[in-house]
Amino acid sequence: MRSFWSIALSTLTKDIRLEWRSKDALNAMLFFSLLVVVIFVFSFDPLAEESRHIVGGLVWVAFLFAAVVALNQTWARELRNQVLDAYRVSPAPANALFLAKAIGNFILVSLLEALMAPLFVIFYNLRVLGPAWQLIPVTLLGTWALVVNGTFFAAMSLRTRSRELMLPLLLFPVSIPAVISMVAATTSILTGDDPAHFYIVLLLTYDVVFTTACLALFETVLQAE
Amino acid sequence: MKRAFPILAVLTALLLVYAFYQALWVAPTDALQGDVYRIIYYHVPSAWTAFLLFFINFIASVQYLANARPSTARAARWIVIAIGIIGFVAPFIPQVKQQLPTGMYPSSVATTFLIITGLYFVIGKYFVDQDLDVLAVTTAEVGVVFCSIVLVTGPIWARPVWGIWWAPGDIRLTSTLVLWLIYVSYLVLRRFSDSAQTQKLAAVLAVFGALDVPLVYFSIWFFRTQHPQPVIGGGGSMDPRMLHVLLISWMAFLCFAFLVCWSRYRLEKLRREVEEAEALESLLEPAGLAGPSSAVKTPLSRGSK
Amino acid sequence: MNSIKFLYAAYIATWLIHSLYIGSLVRRYGRLRQQMKDLGRGK
Amino acid sequence: MTNPLTAPRGAPIIAVSNLVKQFGRFTALRGVNAEFDAGKFYVILGDNGAGKTTLLRALAGLTDPTRGEISILGKKPHEASRDLGYMAHPSLLYDEMSGMENLLYFDKLYDIAGNSRCEQAIQAVGLDAELSRPVGKYSQGMRQRMSLARAILHDPKILFLDEPFSNVDLHSAREMVGLLKGMRDAGKTILVVTHQAALLEGTADEFVWMQAGQIVDRTNHLARGHLAPGDAPAGES
């Protein structure tokens, strides 16, 4: 078991080092996230009263777009020189690679969210009426829900023709319950009118169900040839 | 075997006409909605048929993945048996019994679980590896057709009765929409990845889709309790005569779906056969055939002459 | 009561979708027959 | 299980029985039967589409056979992965990392850490371990040698090399052949898929000819066997 985590850790540190070395991909994604926020601000007037009710949805849709852009890059480096073959020939377990990639994506998407969230607060001068601390579990669980399925479907769409197009087509339908929960939870916390407990529990269930499914089926997807 | 198809087709046509007659003239008019409620006789059976087809797709996909290795195949069989037993016993336990929604009797829940387990083993017996995948494609495609009908007739029914085209709070229609999206993405995945392992990837996506359904249901169910909105078709029990007509048209739809699936199944088998023969032919065509021993016969399948 | 129009619309829509799908099946079958004929001629 | 390295030469280390592989409608392998002995150097030849690469990938466990059995050291390819080395035309290395960094990462996958082994592998292929330039900036010859270093890092018993010499300069190619000869003499079993078979004349123990998904001929010398059409012998024949 020790080697599982040491492989996962070394894959993660390798990815982070490579990402840090050529920061161009990261900068491009940060700029994309900024663009998404600005376009939302222009299309949904921040001063209107009802925008307070829909800002929960805006935030998560913006996060979703940024996540898809990041998730599309997950396997880009492995594809360039068929490095996956080297991994598949080695005795290293497939799930170690999957977890390393998923956690790497989680860090990357959280970084993008960390940039976008303050912008939303500024542009929409948000004041949280409900229990603000609950936003933390909602964001963490919600981001993991998108990232774990996203990494899995990114690996699956490696074998299809137009890869960048396939990922959202596979990811969005399956993520609908998670998106509903995230948006409803965020909105009820922002407006403070009803409790968000049910949605946080639902998000937790969603994460547990799909993390297990991903770990069970990733080997099949990676070795499918 | 060939003659059975036309006979069944005629029988199904008769059944459909009979159901049509029942739906429009025999069934009583609804007190509130007048005659427009008769859309239910096409809307609801299409939904039930679609859900059944998607469920068969899920079973075929699970078996296709499980059969990859004998050990997982055995494990899958034991899990299904366990689910069958638990499902059969659970509804009769008092605490579980009062959880059941009003219309549902414990016996009906128990029998459905029995049917589910039976279905798993029937499919396992009659469909082997490749055929499982062909069955999965067929049921997914025909299922999407029936699901589209549900999503078209739903709003057509809601407009005159509730003045709105789409009720996001209506749990059944919204779940059907999500299910439709999942299976359209399933079909798109099959079309986009023409590589050999499409079948495995599609089976994996089918399992993901099925895991998603209960979560969709609960997320919308809670959404509905917070913002009560009209439910299309109204809940609660129905006039027995209406229920009788509903079941008749469902039978008719099931027979129709069976015939469509059967022809789509044969079409898919033929398509794969023809493509294989074509690939074989293109391989042996080039001049490279002049090698010392062209031991390779051309086993073109019978269909090609 | 113009709501009857909606009833007919729903029924017609149902059979329209079914016939569209069956039409696509027949077209695909025709294309396959054509491919099989080419196969024979290609030898 | 006696260690094949010390076992007498000729004990079959790889056994393939009616191996069939279908990619959807295309049948790449049509019933391959073969045995390969330990400590021998095999060259697999044939046209494009003869199934050479598919066979090699199936032996390395990268492709699951549709039908048929593969046993390596008595085990399935996946279980024998610790004793397999695989190299292909693409470098299977990260372009942004230096050779040493690449090997350090791949070394971890085999769960026996230690960069001393990485230095030995790099020196074994005649490169300088201190080279800090990223692999992306290597010449094709150097990149293939670093890829070979990655394949032999964990001292595998069997080496599968798919087109290792393609568009590599003649000098580097000859040197790599020398390296492979040394490894074969040390007891490793080597299978190479290549179009430049002439380079291996005199080194390889056996030439395996494939055509339309089957093994059609096995000869000891390139000359006596039939020259695969379209196979221009590189360098002096």
Strand and helix layout:
The complex is a heterotetramer of chains A (225), B (305), C (43) and D (237).
Chain A lengths: L1 H20 L2 H20 L7 H22 L3 H5 L2 H7 L4 H30 L11 H22 L6 H29 L5 H27 L2
Helix pairs in contact in A: 1-6, 2-3, 2-6, 3-6, 3-7, 3-8, 6-7, 6-9, 7-8, 7-9, 8-9
Chain B lengths: L3 H23 L13 H27 L3 H20 L4 H6 L6 H21 L2 H34 L8 H22 L5 H29 L13 H45 L21
Helix pairs in contact in B: 1-9, 2-3, 2-5, 2-6, 2-8, 2-9, 3-5, 6-7, 6-9, 7-8
Chain D lengths: L11 E12 L2 E12 L3 E5 L6 H8 L7 E6 L11 E4 L11 H11 L5 H10 L15 H13 L5 E5 L7 H16 L3 E5 L12 E6 L2 E6 L18
Parallel strand pairs in D: 3-7, 3-8, 5-6, 6-7
Antiparallel strand pairs in D: 1-2, 1-4, 8-9
Helix pairs in contact in D: 2-3, 3-4
Describe this entry's structure for a reader:
The complex is a heterotetramer of chains A (225), B (305), C (43) and D (237). Chain A is mostly helical. Chain A has one domain (2-223). Chain A has nine helices and no strands. The longest helix of chain A is centred in the middle third of the chain and has 30 residues, at 94-123. The mean pLDDT of chain A is 90. In chain B, 37% of the residues are buried. Chain B has helices at residues 4-26, 40-66, 70-89, 94-99, 106-126, 129-162, 171-192, 198-226, 240-284. Chain B has one domain (41-270). Chain B is mostly helical and 305 residues long. Chain C has one helix at residues 3-42. Chain C is rod-shaped. The mean pLDDT of chain C is 87. With 237 residues, chain D is α/β, with parallel strands linked by helices. Chain D has one domain (12-219): Rossmann fold, CATH 3.40.50.300. Chain D has a six-stranded mixed sheet, with helices on both faces. Classes of the chains: A mainly alpha (225), B mainly alpha (305), C mainly alpha (43), D alpha/beta (237). Chains A and D meet through helix 1 and helix 5 of A and strand 5 and helix 2 of D.
> Which percent range describes the beta-strand content of chain A?
under 5%
Average pLDDT for all residues of chain C: 87
Span between termini of chain C: 66 Å
Oligomer: heterotetramer
Spans of chain A of at least 5 consecutive residues whose pLDDT stays below 50 are none
DSSP, total strands of chain A: 0
SSE string of chain A: HHHHHHHHH
Quantity of strands of chain C, as a count: 0
Which chains share the greatest interface?
A: A-B, 34 and 33 residues
- The helicity of chain A comes to over 70%
Number of helices of chain C: 1
Which residues of chain C sit in consecutive blocks of at least 5 with pLDDT less than 50?
none
Largest sheet of chain C: none
Rg of chain C, alpha carbons: 19 Å
Helices and strands of chain C, in order, run as H
Inertia-based shape of chain C = rod-shaped
Give the count of structural domains of chain A: 1
Q: Which overall shape of chain A is indicated by the principal axes computed on the Cα atoms?
A: globular
- Proportion in β-strands of chain C: under 5%
